[in-house]
Amino acid sequence: MQQSNASGAAAGRVLVVDDDPTVAEIVAGYLDRAGYLVDRADDGPTALTRAAAHWPDLVVLDLMLPGMDGLEVCRRMRDQGPVPVIMLTARGDEDDRILGLEVGADDYVTKPFSPRELVLRVESVLRRTRPATGTRLLSSAGLAVDPGARRATKDGTELALTLREFDLLAFFLRNPGQAYAREDLMREVWGWDFGDLSTVTVHVRRLRGKVEDDPARPRLIQTVWGVGYRFEPEGE
Predict the structure, then answer these.
(1) What is the pLDDT of residues 145-168, one digit of tens each?
(2) Which of 69, 104, 68, 66 lies closest to 85, judged by CA?
(3) Burial of 183 (0-12, 13-18, 19+ CB in 10 A)
(4) Cis status of the peptide bond prior to 112, with omega within 30 of 0
(5) What are the tens digits of pLDDT across the range 97-130?
């Protein structure tokens, strides 16, 4: 089933993947009224087919799907190309939420949730995917970030970063030598004054795996015990 915004003036294309028809209809309705083109799918294979036919700007993806779960759908979509993903998870399933972040979800919302909050999350994520204008190139310790092109490299080799990993790396490069609490990073990078701080922890771990020579002994993104994290360009 597919829905489209009748006005034709779309803020972006969103693929909603949920096997609960009531949840899917409510989410699609709110997104449609917010100006988005909305595609819908109720299982993993259909979601992959819809995405291949019309690549979405963002995916709202239920974690618990029949057959192929949301984690596998996320992995397969990411194999095809970069796309922001907001996971829908059941309240209390912390391990599942962390798994979703580990496979590259950019954000998650726990059920039951406010549809208006979900629309705000979608707007927040998509706002950060738009190319920045008038921003300078950032470089340090062999890392280079082009905010306008949304491109990052390490020693000249392009890095495959998710939306939030890119923003986190750019923030660290802009603010070297400064210690930030996870609450600060949640506010500055995610744009939220509240949220599960394990989201920050998981993204720092994933980012270290891509920019550190030895992620088990991080030299660039250092842990400041009792505070949070600090980017040290010289690895001191």
Answers:
(1) 998 888 899 999 999 888 889 999
(2) 104
(3) middle
(4) yes
(5) 677 777 777 888 888 888 888 998 898 888 877 7
